[in-house]
Write a sequence for this structure.
């Protein structure tokens, strides 16, 4: 399991310009079952994505498709972790 942290490095006007394309990117990976949740940071300085992937390399390949990466709008930090405690509703993601 991976937590992807995004930090915007361009003004919000640039982020807004590519927001629809970013949402389409997110939807693709929600449909594949690899994205579990995502959202904006508060204050709005970036976002985060919880991603189910087999390797860090796979996560890097996914990120490379994000318009925020393609147009150098955000920096990404990838944190791999092993879920050990969670609500039962999420069990299918972690087994």
């Amino acid at each position: 399991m991976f937590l992807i942290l995004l930090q915007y490095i361009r003004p919000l006007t640039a982020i807004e310009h590519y927001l629809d394309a970013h949402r389409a990117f997110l939807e693709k990976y929600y449909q594949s079952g690899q994205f579990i949740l995502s959202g904006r940071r508060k204050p709005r300085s970036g976002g985060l994505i919880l991603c189910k992937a087999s390797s860090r390399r796979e996560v890097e390949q996914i990120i490379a498709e994000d318009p925020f990466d393609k147009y150098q709008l955000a920096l990404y930090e990838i944190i791999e972790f092993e879920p050990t405690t969670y609500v039962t509703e999420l069990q299918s993601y972690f087994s």
